[in-house]
Amino acid sequence: MLGPFTVSPLTTAVQPKAGKPFNNHGVITSTNSKSDVPSAPSIVAQTALSLEYASLRHQNHCPLGIYIVPSPDSLFVWDAVLYTHQGYYAGAILRFRVTFPSDYPDNIPAVQFITDIFHPLIDQSGFFNLSAHFRPWKPREHRIHDVLYCIKAAFKKYRLDQIKEVDAWNKEAYRYHESTFSFSALAAQSSQLTRSESALYDKDHPSFAGQPTEGLVFQKLSPDMLREYRQTLGLHEWLNDE
Questions:
Q1: 3-state SS class at 12
Q2: Structure pTM?
Q3: What range(s) does the UBC core domain occupy (predicted)?
Q4: For a Cys staple, 27 with which of 31, 110, 120, 203, CB 3.0–4.6 Å?
């Protein structure tokens, strides 16, 4: 049985470093080091990101089940985790990273899943096809909360049913999607692996190979630590219904 755990955001800084070019998906070619962030960010972009991050505290701005924090290295890189509770991916714990271009909000950010997951819109490197939803990206209308709601919706059945083959960056997942039974089984298996102890705590796990994981850290809690957290938060022990 999976033990109790907590996810801890680290402290943040706002000075971005030099970045790398975008690839043919319209996303950054690599996020394998702390230096892979946009270069020469404008004051407008920095201000926009600061305001948008602050706005996530408002009701309904950050979707339920998503936790997000700026990277320790840059305001232009945000680390997040998504907990799914229903549908094909019920029970999945998914880490992802949002990287903003230096001219944000004029251009769309890039989203890369750090956790391996079988999904039509996510390629083998973990990049997520945001463009399938934002046609086109509208700087004066679209904001980070729209991106987060798009990401969460992508794991719901109604949104999966709307995906077109041209937008599927994982063609194998798209083909399996034509068979509800097969897709459901593969999605459930993929989701189960995301919440294994090795996937959550082991930095040598294949999901983390060459991937950035500094922004959010999962920590396994001992019974004493869990009891202390529950007391601090005013939570009661979970009891079996017998």
A1: coil
A2: 0.75
A3: 44-200
A4: 110
In this predicted structure, the answer to whether residue 1 has a pLDDT above a threshold of 50 is no
Residue listed under structure tokens 């030099």: 18
Distance CA 104, CA 77 (A): 12
What mean pLDDT comes out for the span 123-130? Answer: 95
CA dihedral 49, 39, 210, 95 (to 10 degrees): 10
Give the type of residue at 182: S
Find the mean pLDDT for residues 5-17.
36
Question: How wide is the angle at C-alpha 153 spanned by C-alphas 149 and 155, nearest 5°?
Answer: 135
Coil, strand, or helix at residue 213? coil
More confident residue, 17 or 102: 102
Computed from CA positions of residues 209, 22, 61, 88, in that sequence, does the dihedral angle turn out positive or negative?
negative
Burial 57-76 (b: 16+ CB within 10 A, else e): eeeebbbebbebbbbebbbb
Q: Count the residues in the chain.
A: 242
What the block records as the tokens of 122 is 């996510």
Please identify, in words, the CATH class of the domain defined by 43-229. alpha beta
Task: Give bridge partners of residue 155 from the DSSP assignment.
Answer: none
Helix, strand or coil, per DSSP, at residue 182: helix
